[in-house]
Amino acid sequence: MVHKKEEQKADCYGDEVREHIERFAANGGFEAIPDDEVDTWTTRFKFWGVFQQRSGQEEYFMMRLTNASGILEPGQLRRIGEVAKEYAKGPVENPEFGNGWIDLTTRQSVQLHWLKLEDVPEIWEQLEEVGVHSRSAGGDTMRNISGCPLHGKAEEFVEVGPLLERFEEDLRKDDALANMPRKFNISASGCTVGCAQDSLNDIGFEPATKEVDGEEVRGFNVCIGGGLGGRQPRAATPLDVFVRPENAYEVGRGFVELYHDYGNRQNRSKNRARFFAEDWGMEKIRETLQEEYVDFEMLRAGEDFREEYTYNAGRPVEEGQHDHVGVGDQTDGRNYVGLSVPVGRLPAEDAIELADLADEYGSGEVRLTRRQNPVIVDVADEDLEDLLAEPLLSEYPAEPSPFERGAMACTGTEFCSIALTETKGRMARMLRWFNKNVDLPEDVGKIKMHYSGCTADCGQAMTADIGLQGMRARKDGEMVEAFDIGVGGGVGEDPSFIDWIQQRVPADEAPGAIRNLLEAYAAHRSDGQTFREWVEATGEEQLIEFCEPEETDFKAPYMGDAKQSWYPFAESESAAAAAGDGAVAPSDD
User: Can you give the pTM of this predicted structure?
Assistant: First the structure.
């Protein structure tokens, strides 16, 4: 028997959903949806990036945009900021971020909150006028294509732009493949630092070489079945296939079609591509691709560059790029400048000012990274000093603190129905508290701290130096927000996921636990040892002892149950409250 969501999608999904959204919008917005059809229609809306916010906010929606590999062309960021300023305002201000802002995502795109359904068609019109859209940004479909954010600008081993563009134009826009068994993530890297994090995607293309007929050929090795969430993370497995750049699209499309045709549509907790890959195995998938979906003879894998990967790999800074923050060289002699936006949230006015700076000092183009940060590109040497001196860059610096540089956070209970804890506001305050209360050795340039509000792990806690995952716990007889704390995650040559060393730590004791752990790292590390290297060299029992929960002077207005927070919230418990007893929350739909 198929899952009920498959029945909901069967009658209407993909491109045709848009006309229904427009009809509801014209007839009163959310109130126009019949009460007994709300679940069905909001499930369908997700294909167009329109997500109903959590209980207590039912008449408001989030819109996720899509821009392949993080490219925002001149004028696009400004228009997104203008739309946010006009439409993305809620009934109350966030005490940390105010009202009217954009969220940068871990898939190199943007989310807008507090939208009314009746405004969605006008928002689409304004965004699409400059080439920004929300099609296929959510739901059971191919999500935003992820790639090297600086492709075409920084050094590449294989030119990846044409492949990314074809995935966007020919594959994601094919309505015949809109209704997938679950969400599906595609990535491709052309560089040798691994910044697209292909190992976390359902299918990833990694730069490689192979000798073919006595000639060394540049192309891609293919890996499949990567993903996070549900406490069941899995690094993508090499498919043992090498493809030339001109054949990569056919293999990517072939695996999408294979999963579309054979993927599990019954059990939504077990139907991501990573479970499909485990069930079928690489040999069967490779043989089926060759026999049913690919017209050329696929070659066995070539030699990859994973041993050179440094992006979020836990290596010392001097070994190579671990993110795209700071000033870097472009191949045309100009510069890019990556800014740090802790937890990825930008007030609308700041987004517009950032667009102005990109126009003034660069080409107007802005690139977004998988670490929730923006990059201004095409900055001439003679303009670099003036750009770095701009007041906005003191707020979002190119040389941030080690804590701010590595910070990421998901949406959390502020809007998400499956989250257990508030995330972005608390993380922003914790970063400031760590800056004041934790001293690190001068050579430690980064501590990658990721925070997810539940086990879906949209904040990628599993790949952090220090991963935080939202839970609930009892303290002094009351239910409070809490963290599980894990250490030692990262991608790179050998992806590893965090080991949990503390669980159900009350929110007011977690900053003290993390401070104690970091002070132990500073005191006991070897010269030049990164946090991930130190964790690997330190026994689990010792790490647990170092990470001792402790009450401190850290304060936030949302230390207890989420229902005591500032934003509108229904009296009933969240849909994810059951996860407090150890159940696994579903991954983002």
Answer: 0.95
